[in-house]
């Protein structure tokens, strides 16, 4: 009965990914928990999967928040999540930069930050709103010759940065400023890296900066507070209920957003 119900589920829902775990690990934990409840076992990698699950965009292991999940035929819909809008709350720290651009890395540079005021930061943020060019971090899920850049870097290989590419920032605002720490709310499009943004903000302020804490608060129509299933709610019944209650969100999500800037010209885990 439970097995039949699990294998009949199709659609998209979202879970909470805690800090310190990869998106792939989080997804696998969910999958194993559902399969165990249903009394099912996963087939080997070369055979057809017992349960199809996928996520709609990698969230850094050092970050927490919304991870959108597709189940059954819902995995075919995840492409819209990759290109759709996302919202983050990020705490940046001025005066330091790390090799990973977040708090998991080693400090590679330190610079003074006492000259920076809230007005300076507000002024700089305007240059990072709209369609902007951004260089992705070396420590990322992007690949070279089929291998992740982050893996190549950790293996000691010489890796060139990927060229700058256009990304879109729909909204960017300061929610707290207590140097060296500052907190921003960000709404952006696909392919955007918050770590790169904080690095670039630090440089624009004649200093440096890295991500101290990052939370994805929304992806597509799914919000952390309203829709994300915590691990203690990972059950077949809860997933089924979430799929049913939130199915209307997918049709309500606009196909394209408009920039919250004067340009208003639309442009990726």
TrEMBL record:
Gene3D superfamilies: Pseudouridine synthase
Basic and acidic residues: compositionally biased ranges: 255-269
Keyword tRNA processing: yes
Signal peptide: none
InterPro entries from the UniProt entry: PsdUridine_synth_cat_dom_sf (IPR020103), PsdUridine_synth_N (IPR002501), tRNA_psdUridine_synth_TruB (IPR014780)
Alphabetic keyword roster: Isomerase, tRNA processing
Chain segments carrying region Disordered: 247-269
E.C. no: 5.4.99.25
Enzyme class: isomerase
Domain Pseudouridine synthase II N-terminal: residue ranges: 46-194
PANTHER family in the record: PSEUDOURIDYLATE SYNTHASE TRUB1, TRNA-PSEUDOURIDINE SYNTHASE
Protein family (similarity comment): Belongs to the pseudouridine synthase TruB family.
UniProt-recorded name of the protein: tRNA pseudouridine(55) synthase
Source organism (scientific name): Staurois parvus
